[in-house]
Amino acid sequence: MLSKFSRFLTIAALTTLTCVITHPSSAQPETSEMGEEIEIVTVPLTINQLVNEAFWENSGDFFEQASMGGQLNTIFGWRKFPQGSYPENNITEDGLLLYAILSDYFRQLQEREPIIRTRDLANPFDTSLRENPQYQ
């Protein structure tokens, strides 16, 4: 099980991938070899891209698992020494990371705008069957 601190570091690393933090005064335009300015555009990750990256964060993809190092890691779990990086542990860590990202995402969606409450539409079904003695 991941400690709270390592979960925090993983979430912080993945959310840092979504934006580039630069002080405006230290931002300098890039120049090419010819001396002309190059505009660098950084696009933040969408929630779909963030979830896809988090999904494979600990367990890796097929090619990593199929390599010799990946197969030895599956057998011995040597990448993360105290708990072992066995496939079950990696899947658990990926699940915890996804849970943290998605619960934060839905919390942000909920807090973004106030809840709008509206009246129910008028309908002829204003009583229940239990209240009506004809149906019993």
From TrEMBL:
Protein name: Porin
Lineage, top ranks: Bacteria, Bacillati, Cyanobacteriota, Cyanophyceae, Oscillatoriophycideae
Keyword Signal among record annotations: yes
Signal peptide: 1-27
Keywords noted in UniProt: Signal
